Amino acid sequence: MPVHKPLYATPQDAETAFYDALARSDLEALMSVWAEDEEIICVLPGGPRLLGYAAVREAWRRVFGSGRRLSITLSHQAYLTGMLLSVHSLHEHLGLSGGDGQTAPVVVTNVYLRGALGWRLLAHHASAAPPEMSADAAQTLH
Question: For the purposes of burial, counting CB atoms within 10 Å of the CB of 26, is it exposed (0-12), middle (13-18) or buried (19 or more)?
């Protein structure tokens, strides 16, 4: 696990860091957003439920191992935030950097937990959206 982890003052700060690291294919930065807990959970589209830091890290290492960078646009963000827990529901629109198209949206739930080191990602669940959502795809501006 990384020795130094940045402090995220809000769950939105943690989410911004997560998607920035994802777009840069930066495994260390991405994992620094996750809680240092063996009970973290990650589900990638079409994949199994991953439990624990090592399994989550390995899955993202494989994703980044292709050498391709993702282009990510977020939409339909909704937040339910309390003092110690924040649940974010959103749509990810994924494509390859430099590519022309994007996939149908991916429906995502991110759960953030506030602890001594600020807000951390506890769970990321991403599932393919139903086909009727394809027409609702966001446009990438960069």
Answer: middle
